[in-house]
Amino acid sequence: MTMALDAPTATDALISLRDVTLAYGDVVAAKDITFDVRPGEFVSLIGPSGCGKSSALRAIGGLLDANVGSVAVDGTTVTGPRPQEISYVFQDLALYPWRSALRNVEIALQFAGVPRRERKERAMDALRRVGLGDVTERMPSQLSGGMRQRVAIARALVSDARILLLDEPFAALDEQSRLSIGAQLVRILEEEGKTVVFVTHSLAEAAFLSDRVVVMGPRPGVIREVIDVPLERPRHASLMRDPVFHDLTDRLSALLIDDSQAHS
Ligand SMILES: Nc1ncnc2c1ncn2[C@@H]1O[C@H](COP(=O)(O)OP(=O)(O)OP(=O)(O)O)[C@@H](O)[C@H]1O
Fold first, then answer.
1. Cβ of 83 less than 6 Å from ligand 1
2. Signal peptide: which range, if any (predicted)?
3. What is the distance in A from the centroid of ligand 1 to the CA of 66?
C-alpha cells in the first residue's frame, strides 16, 4: 500500500484527490482518481451505477481509506471522519422514525456537543430555512417524501461543517421537485459559503446545480473528464430552456454513452 504523501494540492483546493484507488477487498471501486474542489465550489460526480461515486465521497469523508494515492482536506491527509468539518446527506435519509422533525435535526447538534439550550433554536432555524418552519413537530411518517428530504438537509445544514457531502439526496423525488429543492439548497449554501461534493444520476441536476461536473467511467471508475459549467449564478428554473444548458446536458450524456459503448 502506498502511504499518502503530503498531497501536491493545488494551492486553492479545499479538497484534493490525487491518483486515488479505492477497493473493498478484491473489488476495485475507483482507480487513479484525481480532482480538486475549491472552497465554496459545488462539484458533482456523475457516472454509471457502481463506478465508485459513493466510494469517492466516503474517502473524502474519511469513512474509506485510499488503497493508493492521497485524499486531503485543507492540505491535510484524511485519516478518519471529521464530523466538525464535514457533514453528509445520504440516499437513505436515516431519519429516526420515532423523533419529530425538530428532534431529528436537534440530534445532530447533540452529537456535536452543542449545549441543550442552543439546540432547539438552531434546529428551528435550519428547518425554517428549508421551508419546514410550520411542521417541526410532525413525525417522519406524517411528512411527504420531499419534506423528509428537507429534514435530512436541515440536519446537515445545522452543523457548522463547511463541507457537505451529498449522496443522491433527492433520489426519491420526481425531477421537478429535485430541481426546486436543489435550487433552494444551493441558495442556502451560497449564503453560507459551503463547499459541496454531490453525487447524482440526474444530468440536469448536475448541470443546474454545479460549478463543475466530474464524469466517471464504468467500474473501476476512472475520471473521463471534468467539465466547467458555463452558467452564471444565481440560477433560475428558466435556465433549463437555455441552449447552453441543453448543450451541456447533451455533452454529459454523450460522455456517459461513449463510456458504456466503449466497455460493452
Ligand atoms: N461495502 C462494500 N463492500 C464491497 N463492495 C462494495 C461496497 N460498497 C461498494 N462496493 C462496490 O464498489 C463498487 C463501487 O460502488 P459505489 O457505491 O461507490 O458506486 P456508485 O457509483 O456510487 O454506485 P451507484 O450509482 O449505483 O450508487 C461497486 O461495484 C460496489 O459493488
1. no
2. none
3. 14
**Cβ of 21 below 6 Å from ligand 1:** no
Q: ipTM score here?
A: 0.97
* SS3 of residue 69 by DSSP: strand
Residue 52 beta carbon below 6 angstroms from any ligand 1 atom: yes
User: What is the C-alpha to C-alpha distance for residues 67 and 32, in angstroms, rounded to an integer?
Assistant: 10
- Sign for the CA dihedral angle at 208, 210, 213, 219 comes to negative
Tens digit of each residue's pLDDT (9 = 90 or more) over 16-61: 999 999 999 999 999 999 999 999 999 999 999 999 999 999 999 9
Q: Specify the pTM.
A: 0.88
Contact 220, 65 (CB under 8 A): no
- DSSP H/E element including 33: strand 27-37
Distance, CA of 180 to CA of 186 (rounded, Å): 10
Is-cis flag, bond preceding 234, omega within 30? yes
Classify strands 163-167 and 86-89 as parallel, antiparallel or unpaired: parallel
For residues 36 and 13, what is the distance between their CA atoms, to the nearest angstrom? 6
What's the rounded Cα separation, in Å, for the pair 29 and 44?
A: 18
Q: Write down the pLDDT at residue 196.
A: 95
Closest C-alpha residue for ligand 1 atom 12: 29
Q: How far apart are CA 45 and CA 167, in angstroms?
A: 9
Query: What pLDDT was estimated at residue 174?
Result: 76
Sheet holding 195-199, edge to edge: 86-89, 163-167, 195-199, 42-46, 212-216, 223-228
pLDDT digits (tens, 9 = 90+) for 66-82: 999 999 999 999 999 88
